[in-house]
Amino acid sequence: LLGQVLDHWFESEPLKATLATDAVIGAMASPHTPGSGYVLLHHVMGELEGRRGAWGYVAGGMGALSHAIAQAATARGAHIFAEKAVCHVLLGRAGEARGVVLQDGTEVRSKLVLSNASPQITFLELIPQEQLPKDFVQRIRQLDTRSPVTKINVAVDRLPSFLAAPNARDGQPLPHHQCSIHLNCEGTQLLHQAFTEAAHGHPSSRPMIELCIPSVLDPGLAPPGCHVVSLFTQYTPSVLAGGRCWDEQARNAYADTVFDCIEDYAPGFKASVIGRDILTPPDLERIFGLPGGNIFHGGMSLDRLYFARPVPSYSGYRSPIPGLYLCGSGAHPGGGVMGAAGHNAAQVAIKDFRHL
C-alpha cells in the first residue's frame, strides 16, 4: 500500500498527500488501493538530463515532441502520412501482417506493422476477430480502461497569485510558478474521498488538481503578460450516475467546481480566465483514441504490468499476428512520456526483420 510506504518515510500529511497524487495519476484508484505504490515508482523512475526522477516541460508544447520525432524519422528516410486514418491491418494468406488499409481505400504494404494505438483499437478494431485466439480477444476485452481524468486547458490574462505565496509587485514569475502545483492535497483522506465519490458515479466535489503554468518557462506559448494553465484533475467517472452522459452542462459544472477550488487558493483566478477547454474521459477517448479516456491505454495495476502487459504470453511486443507489433503505452513498461515501449518494440521488430 502506498500509505504504508509514505508513512515509513514522512511525517507531514500535506507532503504525503502531494506525493500520493503521483500514485493515483491516471488511475481510478485511491492512495489506499493495494498496488498504488507502483504507480508512484513509475513516475519517479528514470532520469532527465542526468537528474533522477526529474520531469520537464517540452519547449513549444507537447506537440513539439511529436514534431521532433517526426523530423528525426524523415531525416532517415521515413514517410509520414498525417490525418490518414487506418481502417484495418492487411493480412497475408497465412494470417501475417502485410501492411495497412487506409479509410480512403489506399493500401500501404509492408513486411512489418507496428501499432502505437491501444491494444483495444489494435486487436478489436483493426484485426478481424476470427484471426485471433478467442482467449486473447477475451483478455483484451477485459482490460481495465477506467479513467478518472478530466484535463482542462486554460488561458489567463495574468499570473495566478496564491495566498500561500503572493506574487511580487512587478508580477514576475516566482519559483513555484515553474513547478507542478498540487491543490486539494492537504491529506490523503481528501484524495480517498474524491475517489469514493467518482466510484459512485459522481464527479469529485473537491477534486485533486495538478496545476502547471508552462508559459512561465516557455513564453512563446502565450501573448506577453498572458499565460496558459494546464489542469490535470481527478476524479471524474466516464459514465455519470444514472447512466447520464457528459453533456455541455455537466462539463461546465465540473469545471466550475475546479475553478472554485483554485479560487480558494488563488483569489482572482476566475476573473483572469480568458478561455478554457474541458476534456472529460469520453472526450479523451474520442479525440485521442485513449480507451475509456485512460492516459496509459489501460490500468497500471500490478496484475497488468511486466509479463502481463498487455496480456500474459504477449508482453514481448509481438502479437498473435506474425509481423504485427504493439509499441504504445499498452505494452511494457506502460504509459508516460519516455518512449521505452517504442524503443523496445523497435528492437524486437528489427531483430525479426533480419530474418525475413
TrEMBL record:
GO terms for molecular function: oxidoreductase activity. InterPro entries: Amino_oxidase (IPR002937), FAD/NAD-bd_sf (IPR036188). Keywords: FAD, Flavoprotein. SUPFAM superfamilies: FAD/NAD(P)-binding domain. It comes from Pheucticus melanocephalus. Interacts with COX5B; this interaction may contribute to localize PYROXD2 to the inner face of the inner mitochondrial membrane. The keyword Flavoprotein applies. The keyword Transmembrane does not apply. Residues 33-178 form the Amine oxidase domain. Pfam families: Amino_oxidase (PF01593). GO terms for cellular component: mitochondrial matrix. This is Pyridine nucleotide-disulfide oxidoreductase domain-containing protein 2. Belongs to the carotenoid/retinoid oxidoreductase family. It is found in: Mitochondrion matrix. Probable oxidoreductase that may play a role as regulator of mitochondrial function.
